[in-house]
Specification:
This protein is α/β, with parallel strands linked by helices and 382 residues long. It has helices at 11-27, 39-43, 52-55, 60-64, 67-81, 95-107, 120-123, 128-132, 145-150, 191-208, 240-245, 254-260, 270-277, 290-299, 307-312, 327-339, 349-363, 368-381; strands at residues 2-7, 31-36, 46-48, 88-91, 113-115, 137-140, 156-158, 182-186, 225-228, 249-250, 263-267, 282-286, 319-321.
């Protein structure tokens, strides 16, 4: 029986990794998995060594506060890797931790097949040489990443984007007029994201006239509703009030919400690309701690941070970051999208949707999970 150590650091990667595990098992019936993952990976047979809730934190200060936890987790993971029965290590994104763990695996002679490359082209070019010394194969999900990583001597292969493996994105995009009169709120999934974003989203909803106590009949959006997708409403603690008291419609599936809404306010991250693939015009928001933002400004060498804008090579989605994430400005952009107008150089809704279609074509076809699984299983058979 071959044993694979696989490691993710958030719930989006948990979904992608679970699909990869399923495809690996379809090819090889003598494999088992141990490592760091969440509920989707556990459903596929992962033996978890820590709770994903504890791992899923972002930001310099947020991670620093849990330094001892991550230090102990790295040592515990390294001890498993040193046991002599791990055939392959698959880190999935999550660069800060997974690059360090890849160094441990490489030290013990375990092949490292990195799936969903860390975005070093955005913030960590100095780490690319470090990655080249420890990774046997890099399986990337954006076409432009091949040239970037190969320029550092890393064996790189484009396998496609795993989002396209979801049948949701294979369906035709629902036309604007056939969608519900709903504005989608996606504040993120991590606790610190929700703490910073939900109060902001409440202020946005109030200005839009959609809270129960401010639903005026003469408001042009009076018949619109707010839809929100959060990972676990019962686990929000005091923040649960913001969702329930305002009467927002809670969706278990963020993709169902995005498919059926007319505009969105969405935290930066993979959900931006998901919204584009669902044909949802949106405004991007992001707030974090002052320390994390300060260091992020120093490290990130891109003009835009939304993945959609990065793939487009220009700003097609408005970004409201940190001090610029003001409710009045965000509401203005939402109204702009609903009215399909052009304003201050911002794209109209139709032009934005046209750019989304172009990005979808550039990503290619479905099959990322299957393609990556074939490469990984081939490595274990050699």
């Amino acid at each position: 029986m071959k044993k694979i150590f696989i490691s993710v650091g958030d719930y989006s990667a948990d979904i992608h990794a679970s699909k990869l595990m399923r495809q690996i098992k379809a090819i090889s019936d003598d494999v088992e998995f141990i490592g760091l993952g969440g509920p989707k990976m556990i459903e596929e047979g992962l033996e978890p060594i820590a709770s994903l809730d504890e791992i899923a934190v972002v930001g310099f200060w947020e991670v620093a506060k849990k330094y001892s936890f991550f230090r102990e987790l790295l040592d515990r993971s390294g001890h498993i890797l040193s046991g002599g029965d791990i055939s392959l290590f698959i880190p999935v994104d999550y660069p800060g931790f997974n690059i360090r763990l890849s160094e441990r695996a490489s030290k013990y002679g375990i092949p490292v097949y990195y799936y969903i490359a860390p975005q070093l082209w955005a913030w960590g070019k100095n780490r690319a040489s470090r990655l080249a010394a420890i990774v046997d194969k890099l399986l990337v999900v954006f076409p432009f990443e091949v040239d970037f990583f190969e320029s550092y001597g890393i064996d790189t292969e484009y396998v496609g984007h795993p989002l396209l493996d979801d049948t949701v994105f294979a369906n035709n995009i629902k036309p604007f007029d056939e969608r519900r009169k709903m504005i989608a709120f996606l504040p993120g999934s991590r606790k610190q994201e929700l703490r910073r974003h939900l109060p902001l989203f409440e202020s946005i909803a109030t200005l839009l006239g959609n809270s129960i106590n401010n639903n005026k009949t003469d408001n042009i959006l009076a018949d619109y509703k707010i839809g929100i997708s959060v990972p676990n409403i019962d686990g929000l603690g005091g923040l649960r009030r913001i969702v329930t008291d305002n009467g927002w419609v809670v969706f278990d599936s963020s993709r169902e919400l995005m498919q059926n809404s007319r505009a969105g306010v969405i935290k930066t991250g993979t959900s931006n690309l998901e919204a584009a693939l669902c044909g949802l015009p949106f405004a991007m928001v992001y707030k974090t701690s002052a320390l994390t933002y300060y260091f992020g400004k120093i490290l990130v060498n891109l003009d835009n941070i939304s993945l959609v804008n990065i793939l487009a090579g220009r700003r097609i989605v408005s970004e409201f970051v940190q001090g610029d994430a003001k409710p009045k400005a965000i509401v203005s952009e939402v109204l702009h999208l609903l009215n399909n107008g052009e304003r201050d150089g911002n794209l109209s809704r139709d032009d934005m949707l046209s750019e989304f279609g172009r990005i979808r074509k550039e990503l290619g076809q479905a099959g990322a999970s299957r393609n990556a699984a074939k490469i990984i299983c081939g490595a274990m058979d050699n």
